[in-house]
Amino acid sequence: MDPKEVVEHLVALKVMRLTKPALVSPKIVTCDSKDLPGNILNNFLKDDATSVTQMETLAAGQFLLLPQSFGNIYLGETFSCYVCVHNETNQPVQSVSIKADLQTNSQRILLTTQQNLSPTMLDVDETLSDVIHHEVKDLGTHILVCEVTYMSNYNTLASFRKFFKFEVMKPLDVKTKFYNAESDDVYLEAQVQNITSGPIILEQVSLESSQQFNVKSLNEINNTISVFGEVTLLQPQESCQYLYCLTPRENISKEIKLLAAAKNIGKLDIVWRSNLGEKGRLQTSQLQRMTPDYGDIRLTFEKLPSKLSVDEPFDFQCKIVNASERTLDLILKLRSLQDSSLLWCGTSNKKLGPLEPGKTFYVNLTALPINTGLCNISGVSLLDLFLKRTYDYDDVASIYVF
What we know:
By secondary structure, this protein is mainly β. Helix content is about 5%, strand content about 50%.
């Protein structure tokens, strides 16, 4: 505290950051007994109060050190501090109040509640205090502004302020990838990397889906056991990947326009703890995918078997959706490709008739696999009679043939 403030003001302001202590580790400096220092360094290390007996060279500390500075804090953690006003004079001080604000790059946040109470009289050696808790949600420089107001000896209001600056840093680096499946499902891969200075434990990494999708986590075995084990521990710079499957809701999947406009996936909610149990929570902004371009016509195959025997015909459905703004008059063609492992059974050049915008045709098809292995379904074409345009669909789906 500045000595000038003790003289000029009747009360003293003290602020202490409330945080977990840190483990104190010994500074390991050792050598072989045959070297010039002999056992001097080893004996010094054994006498170090912070070292653990018989484990001096493991850098394992046995004492906890209270915070020595205001320090930094990570985004999503809770900033806590103790604000105290002390009457160090030999007479009572009237109308004492505390006000604390947290100033960020974008806003000023009111923290204390003392200003809502009537001012307090502080007797000799009495204190007025408040404990502040605030979850930080902005990156960058933060300034804690503490203001004390009291009645001076001249019956006038006097006040002074103190400023405490600290940095809010990013704790996690989150990278996402999207894959749009033919079944309209969306797969999200989220990579979470620890960019703090110490190890953390991920307690929860969940996806809160938007109103357009239903979400299923693919990070558990039998929906109970995590694929990462009982504890997901990340050392600094380490990362792990999470996978989610999002299925469009029924009202979205039925309309091609709504499906094409469904960009909002949801938000990732991440909860972690530091090595001494301090809790942090981070929620990403709304994740958005790149919706696929369906063009004028969208063709998919449904009711496909997962595997089948060679030379055994199988039936499935061809789903055709008009994604354009005009009515289509279509003809379905089945082409036999030279390198294909599939032969078509049935009639080609089948006239489907007019298909209005947003409407759907279902066509039953039969095919015969002639080779084993992974068989690609190819050779389907649609001819638009109005524009005389042909749409070819190859390698739309695959089936395992044994």
